[in-house]
Amino acid sequence: MSISPSTHCITDCSILNQTTCQLVSRRPMMVDQDTIYSHLWSQDGCYNSTLFQATEGYKVYEKFSVLMSVLMIILGLLGLCGNMFSIAVLARKEMRNCFNHILIAINICDSLHLVFAIMDAVRNSFGDFYPVQLLQIFPYIHYPFYRISLCASIYLIISVAIERYLAVCQPHHYREVQSDSCRSLLYILPSLATALAVNCSRFLETETDRICIDFSKCGPCYDGAVWAYYVKPTKLRMDKQYIIYYHTWTWVVSTGLVPFIILMFLNLRILISLKRLRSRLNVSCSGVNPDKAKMRERRVTQQSRDLNLAIVLISTVIMFFFCHLPRLVTSIYEAANIHSILDCREKGQDKTPLWFMYVTAAVQLLMVVNASLNLPIYFFAGKSFRETSMQLIRCFLPPFIIRVDEDNNIVGGVLTVEPSTSALEQVEQVEQVEGQLDMLVMKEEEVMTVH
User: Fold this and answer.
1) What is the pTM of this model?
2) C-alpha distances out from residue 212 to 208, 224, 279, Å
3) pLDDT tens column, 337-360
4) Which of 170, 177, 119, 178 is nearest to 146 (CA)?
């Protein structure tokens, strides 16, 4: 787009680096550190942002922020590869169930969050590599969906906890509804809709603006005037009431306090119920006839599967608590001090402490860590996932390695053979029959308990 002659352009050559032909983000202040600190703080605790950014402490923080961005990019790329592999394993036929379908949705949301986290790290620390085209659509894609993907992942973890709670704590109801092939959508769609509803105003918080710069007289870097695009907050984002009631407290409650309380309650109930079920099954298996013993043995097998899935859930929730607890603490601190912070900003100053900036940068890295560790959690905590992963890996191994592995599987003249598709179908049919037998046994136990 051509620039009209009447357009006011920036022509200050001092903000242009003649060597790299890039804009200088901030002019270095040649001020003595003692002079800075003597004029930095006011009596109400506010500080001058320009002077604060010239201190040695802030310069160290900038280096720390760049380090966090580099780690976010590296871990994000590794996490994307791991999540793609997890999705490939969970989508296999022998792994299809409601629990794993929700895990697939979690991995997809975590992968989207990693993509936007990598983009955000590049934009904040390596802005020259962030494409202008992405900057123009930043308010509509990058900024809102970065938050939406995080919320969706949180709510999907709650959904998978509810699914396991019903399976372990309310087995009668679970047996009745588990045959529904679309049951996973009842967990996934509400989670996504809630995440979108909580973040719908994010689309109105930022906007892209442009400014004309003309450095044609500053050297060979520019031939004429060009447009420089940048992102700025909207009036809604700067509104004091909006910041207090939505951006602070609503975010703390909807993504911190409520998910933490729900997950703690559900996981404690799951642990207690699993302990009771295992002890009851061990007692009921003694002193019964062989037929009933076989049916109870099938129930023990089913409970073992539920236990393994519960271990995957609990491991995921523990990692969630570990990574999100600092975010919750910093959010509560910000909410408790938001009035004084906004009062300082109205004066053109700031009140954000330096330690809070460090913790905020580390929290962003923890969000990337949480979204990147799905594969290790599933592999080490889930027996079925681990076995299916090894089968999938064997499909990509060279033939001579597979032959050596098959030779090692021959023990005492017996060769272990992988089940065929028809065998897997038979297993599914047997599991359905076992589920019906389990219902009969549970009803029989209830009748015996009544008598």
Assistant:
1) 0.81
2) 14, 10, 74
3) 999 989 888 888 888 899 999 999
4) 119
